[in-house]
Write a structure and sequence with these properties.
The chain is an all-alpha fold. It has a domain of 43 residues. 62% of the residues lie in helices and 0% in strands. The chain contains five helices and no strands. The protein is elongated, with a radius of gyration of 12 Å. The model has no long low-confidence stretch (mean pLDDT 77).
Length: 69
């Protein structure tokens, strides 16, 4: 993700700021975990699998949907 961000000319932020919501949202949308792993540059699948085990509450889902609308 850092390579993609830098390549697009965007400022690089901390992992918690962008990567976690992105990974969680992609997993919730049904994107294959292997694809998310490649996008995020994780060498170990276990690092990426954290996103597949998260189940947001209704309030969290609505908040994220508003943020990315």
């Amino acid at each position: 993700m850092k390579r993609s961000t830098v390549g697009c000319g965007f400022p690089v932020s901390g992992v918690g700021e962008d990567e976690v919501p992105f990974g969680t949202r992609m997993a919730a949308a049904g994107v294959p975990i292997r694809t998310i792993q490649e996008w995020m540059g994780h060498a170990d699948m276990k690092t990426t699998q954290v996103y597949s085990h998260y189940s947001p509450t209704q309030h969290e889902t609505e908040t994220v949907d508003r943020a990315f609308a």
